[in-house]
């Protein structure tokens, strides 16, 4: 049996965002228990030229909501990038999950050959739907999830690989 575009996207996105949510809950509890100002973790980065934790979460959610919308042929929801607390990041994750859950398999399946064009200042990227999902969105999504995890782990949060991967369903 082949893997559909829906199966390769929405369930993957929702599972991994759920795992990120659990990690952020642990980070908030860690900050409280260790008497660490949450802003220290929220603004932490792995390297000076990398984005901080807050931005990693914003980009991860932007990646998947944009992907789902483009593949489904609906408007990409716009979330302002104003989060400055763990609670606000959790709200963003919940809004993203709700949007992802509103996209049906019927809307996304069959989008393999759909033309997807992304416009950036000075650059335009063109993909088929499948290439967009497999070669652009999924690697980008996992990069930002991994970086968020690594920022928190580097700052002392006791999480491991199973926190990132989540428990088997």
In short:
Helices cover 60% and strands 7% of the residues.
How does this structure look, described?
The structure is a single chain. With 169 residues, the protein is mostly helical. It has a single domain, classed as Four Helix Bundle (Hemerythrin (Met), subunit A), CATH 1.20.120. Helix content is 60%, strand content 7%. It contains seven helices and two strands; from the N terminus they run H-H-H-H-H-E-E-H-H. The protein has helices at 10-33, 38-42, 53-72, 86-102, 105-108, 129-154, 161-165, and strands at residues 115-120, 123-128. Strands 1-2 form a two-stranded antiparallel ribbon. Helix 1 runs antiparallel to helix 4, helix 1 packs parallel to helix 6 and helix 3 packs parallel to helix 4. The two termini are 20 Å apart. The mean pLDDT is 96.
Q: SSE layout and pairings?
A:
Layout: H1 10-33, H2 38-42, H3 53-72, H4 86-102, H5 105-108, E1 115-120, E2 123-128, H6 129-154, H7 161-165
Antiparallel strand pairs: 1-2
């Amino acid at each position: 049996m082949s893997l559909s575009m829906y199966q390769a996207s929405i369930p993957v996105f929702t599972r991994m965002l759920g795992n990120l949510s659990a990690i952020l809950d642990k980070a908030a509890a860690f900050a409280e228990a260790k008497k660490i100002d949450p802003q220290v973790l929220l603004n932490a980065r792995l390297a000076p030229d990398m984005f901080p934790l807050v931005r990693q979460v914003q980009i991860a959610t932007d990646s998947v909501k944009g992907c789902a919308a483009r593949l489904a042929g609906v408007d990409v929801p716009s979330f302002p990038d104003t989060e400055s607390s763990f609670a606000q990041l959790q709200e963003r994750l919940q809004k993203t999950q709700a949007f992802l859950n509103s996209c049906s398999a019927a809307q996304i399946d069959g989008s393999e050959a759909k033309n997807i064009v992304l416009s950036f200042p000075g650059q335009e990227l063109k993909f088929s739907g499948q290439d967009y999902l497999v070669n652009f969105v999924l690697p980008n999504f996992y990069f930002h999830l991994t970086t968020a995890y690594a920022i928190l782990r580097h700052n002392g949060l006791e999480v491991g690989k199973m926190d990132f991967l989540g428990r088997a369903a």
